[in-house]
Every structure is written in C-alpha cells, then in structure tokens.
Amino acid sequence: GESVGLHLPTLSVQEGDNSIINCAYSNSASDYFIWYKQESGKGPQFIIDIRSNMDKRQGQRVTVLLNKTVKHLSLQIAATQPGDSAVYFCAEGGGSGGYNKLIFGAGTRLAVHP
Amino acid sequence: DAGVIQSPRHEVTEMGQEVTLRCKPISGHNSLFWYRQTMMRGLELLIYFNNNVPIDDSGMPEDRFSAKMPNASFSTLKIQPSEPRDSAVYFCASSFGGSAKNIQYFGAGTRLSVL
Predict the structure, then answer these.
(1) A5, A25, A36, A66: which has the fewest C-beta neighbours closer than 10 Å?
(2) pLDDT value at position B102?
(3) Are B32 and B41 a contacting pair, CB within 8 Å?
C-alpha cells in the first residue's frame, strides 16, 4: 500500500510464500502503470508494466493486476525468495502528464524471512 | 550493457558550496530524467529532457538548481549554493520512446550530504 511520511509500510513474508503488494493510484486518466524494485543502495529497477486496456499481466514469478474501477494496482510475487527483499514502488503515467512524467507511490518494503 | 552511469556515488559538501552531479544515459536513449529521493517526499521528478532539450522543469525546487544536457550522452545537475535540505539521493534515469509506454532505467544514484 501507500504511505505518507517517514515510515514505509512493510510486508513480512516467509520464504516460499506468495507476496501481494498493493498500490492505490490517484489519477483516473492514467493509462500506464509500472512496478519498480529498489534494493538498498541501488536505483529502482523495472519489474513489469501494464496498460489500462489490460487487467492482468504476467512475467517471471510476478503478476500485476489492475482494477481501474477502484484505481488499484497489485503486484504478486510467487514463491518469494530472500533476493526479493526490497522496496517496491508503483508508478502511473499517461493522462495529462504524458508517458514521460511518471508519478511514483511512496513504496512498500518487502521483508522475506527464511 | 553499461546501464545509466552516475557520478559521484557519494558527495559530502559544506553549505554554500557548488555541487555538480553527472549522468551518462544508456546509449540510444533519447529521454533523460533527474529525480530526488528523500524519506519524507519519496521519489520526485525534478526535470526531464527529450533529445537533449529540457521539456519539463516544474519539479526543480528553486533557482539554485539547474540542469543541462549538452549532448545525448551527458547531463549535469548543479546546485549552487547548496543547503542542508538538499541532502538526498539523486537519481538519473533514461528511456527510449515516450509514446505508448516509457520504461525508465535508473542509475545507482548519488547520495548527497550537505553539512
């Protein structure tokens, strides 16, 4: 989910479990959505994206779901591994800002425990 | 593929000093972005360029901040004079396209500390 201020929401999961990270976006005109993963000390890394004409898109061990009615996006990670521990950001684009001007959410920290 | 290259990785300076951050985008990309990341405000877009031309600098906080892109393979973000509240991690990203979708690839960032 989203958060404002100093503290990122944290999702703690056991290794091997599935993880679901949620994101509420703000602009109903946005038609492009993207998930990034940021490990400590590194820049955000692209994971997967989805256009608004789709409800679901799958990648390798990841699935993004889009619910335009309630402006909600989720990232599902199957069989979560310790290497998945990071902060995950959703971003929205399109709309009046165009596709260059991505608006990033506050992020969710994923902690994977052995 | 080298990815987006930023330098320096870390910069510590004193208030009032000039700071210059550098970025080399991925070869062939035609859009370049500068972001600032802080705990309080998250990841904020400062400015972006298309084909070396600044398109939107509405995120640049003050006149103390300036960015240039003299050619397709190099950009700078300058802060003069720097202040403690400028302390943050600054990211550069690049992309190719900007039409149907835009995957931005980020550098490792420059961690700036202004004392």
Answers:
(1) A5
(2) 75
(3) no
